Amino acid sequence: MSTLAWAPAGRRLRALARAELALLGRNRGVVFTAVTVPLILPFSVGPAFDRVDLKKEGLSVGAAMMTAAVGFAFLFAVYTSLVNAYVARREELVLKRLRTGELSDAEILTGTALPAAGLGLVQALLLCVGCAVLLHTGAPKAPYLTVLGVAAGLVLSAALAALTAAFTRTTESAQVTALPLVFVSMAGSGIMIPTEVMPHTLASVCELLPLSPAIRLVRAGWSGQMSAYEALGTTATALAWIVVAVFAVRRWFRWEPRR
Amino acid sequence: MNNDEHERVIEVTDLSRVYGGGFEAVRGITFSVARGEVFALLGTNGAGKTSTVELLEGLAAPAGGHVRVLGHDPFRERAAVRPRTGVMLQEGGFPSDLTVAETARLWAGCTSGARPESEVLELVGLAGKTDVRVKQLSGGERRRLDLALALLGDPEVLFLDEPTTGLDAEGRRDTWELVRRLRDAGTTVLLTTHYLEEAEGLADRLAILHEGRIAVSGTPAEVTAGRPSRMSFELPGGYFLGDLPPLADLGVCGHESDGRLVRLRTRELQRTAAGVLAWAERSGVELRRLEVRSASLEEAFLGIAREQEVRA
Fold it and tell me: PROSITE patterns given for it (chain B) (predicted)?
């Protein structure tokens, strides 16, 4: 498609993202969780990392904490805050009203997600820089894997948020419907416990969880211990999850409240 | 572009809509709206007005039949239709935590060829409220904000779902005036309403919906033609309906009495009124609460509801 055809779409996305950013800024509870959890929670898992043998896997405690922090950014800055945003906009009939205009469905979902995804990205960057400097982890050994992981994590978190919103009636119930993915990811996707230190069979199951490939890529970027073959497989798993999530959103997303 | 006056801007053929639970809200309706016309869909709550308008707006796919807006399917060919239409939903649709100005800016950014936001806010009398959050607006102000944004892209076709519900008398008159000006400028308007005087005063043509079907359609004059006029009055104590001259001789085609209040339906209003008044004069009777009304949309509306009940 020519740039001419993309220009209006870009303008529409900007307009929607700008409004969503203002709304995000006015929702103190969501901002507080989104900003503080990824910065504070990693320190609570730090001591646990001391007890597992990370060195063997080429990981330092600092790198493990940093990966945990990026995982928390996916979950709290992007995923839970976006479930809340999608449900709130749907219940206020904002999504329905937007659909009467020129925005496409994909633009509505993307534009709404941009500020939260941006917040998640900024946090991930700050955490990487912060850890590199304060925890002396040094620079990532394969930064392109970290970049790939962060990108996949942000996109998947947003898509899963839209999917969760499809099964969430109110912003109050969003606090419950968002929990399963949060818990499963924290425990199984290598945020609290690196999958590298899990028993082999458990690890291979956990590596198939939605956010696992993204977290693995982020961590591997730091340790540099991932073969090209492994990197391809992990990226393929991440892409498969994105495809599944996008398909599910197209199939089940609700644009209006149930009456 | 074809600007022919008789161009069919909205064409609806045998349209039906079925909700998830199996409820058939729209049951095979057909009508068309020409360029520059104001067309009103009238009906009681639950008649299928909003269900129909949402199909025309392209928010849902019909269960059966066809919709064409400006020659396109508004659901499947969204990108071709949306830049040329303006929509005002029956309720809400704006984040309550944005201000009026932020909401207008958002909508302008999503509308090709948008007019300046201040211009449309001025048009609906919200120019002084730009820094107020949507949640702090009154119900009427929210309706006017919605109308302003529907006008932002200078639409060729405007869908207004109950545009004056929640407005006070003055706001309602202002909205009517605005719709007339838009019509004069060539905008095609499809509106729903349950205010009969709104349809009577604004619409070039209208359709009355009842239980998902069009019960009657045409110009207001066509719809009211053939409907009986009404006369009502209260008889003083000691007088009964039987004391009047034979009603058939007065041209009365139907009557009801409710205590002392008598309601007559007639197709010859002058003859009926003259007969009743002459009788009252002769008998020295004073008729209280006397009302004489030509056939109106209200009579057509109530008549349709009555006929449907009889049929059911």
Answer: ABC_TRANSPORTER_1, ABC_TRANSPORTER_2
Residues A97, B94: C-beta atoms closer than 8 Å: yes
Q: What is the 3-state secondary structure (H, E, C) of A175-196?
A: HHHCHHHHHHHHHHCCCCCCHH
On whether residue A258 sits in a domain, the answer given is no
- Spans of all domains in chain B: 8-95+151-224, 229-294
Closest residue in B to A255 (Cα) is B59
Tell me which residue range forms the domain holding A78. Answer: 3-252
Chain A residues whose CB is inside 8 A of the B46 CB are: none
Asked, for residue A45, whether it belongs to a domain, the answer is yes
Q: Right CATH number for B8-95+151-224 from 3.90.780.10, 3.40.50.300, 1.10.10.10, 2.140.10.10? A: 3.40.50.300
**Is the Cβ of B101 closer than 8 Å to some Cβ of chain A?**
no
For B58, other C-beta atoms within 10 Å of its C-beta total: 23
Nearest CB among A8, A18, A89 relative to B95 is that of: A89
| List of chain B residues whose C-beta atoms are within 8 Å of the C-beta of residue A100 | 57, 59, 82, 85, 87, 89
**Which of B19, B107, B110 should we substitute to test contact with A (largest number of A Cβ atoms within 10 Å)?**
B110
Contact (CB<8Å) A23/B98: yes
* Mutation target among A97, A107, A112, A114 for the B interface, most CBs of B within 10 A: A97
B chain contacts of residue A255, beta-carbon cutoff 8 Å: 59
- Does residue A259 lie in a domain region? no
Which helix (DSSP H) or strand (DSSP E) does residue B255 occupy? strand B252-258
Identify all chain B residues contacting A18, using CB atoms and an 8 Å cutoff: 105-106, 109
Nearest chain B residue to A12, by CA:
B110
As beta bridge partners, residue B121 has: none
ipTM computed for the complex: 0.89
**Tens-level pLDDT at each residue, chain B (312 residues):** 445 556 899 999 999 999 988 899 999 999 999 999 999 999 888 889 999 999 999 999 999 999 999 999 999 999 999 999 999 999 879 999 999 999 999 999 999 999 999 999 999 999 999 999 999 999 999 999 999 999 999 999 999 999 998 889 999 999 999 999 999 999 999 999 988 889 988 999 999 999 999 988 999 888 888 788 889 999 988 888 888 899 888 989 889 888 889 999 998 899 999 999 999 999 999 999 999 988 888 878 887 777 777 766
| Secondary structure letter of residue B246 according to DSSP | P
| Tokens, residue B260 | 């002392």
Residue B270 host element (H or E): helix B269-283
Contacts of B136 in chain A (CB under 8 A): none
pTM: 0.88
Map tokens 């129909």 to a residue.
Answer: B52
Three-class DSSP category at A27: coil
Q: List the CATH code of the domain at B229-294.
A: 3.30.70.2470
Q: Does B3 touch chain A (CB under 8 A)?
A: no
Contact B208, B304 (CB under 8 A): yes
Domain count, chain A: 1
Q: Are B106 and B98 in contact (CB under 8 A)?
A: yes
Look at phi and psi of residue B224 and say left if phi exceeds 0, alpha if psi is from -120 to 50, else beta: alpha
Is A117 inside any structural domain?
yes
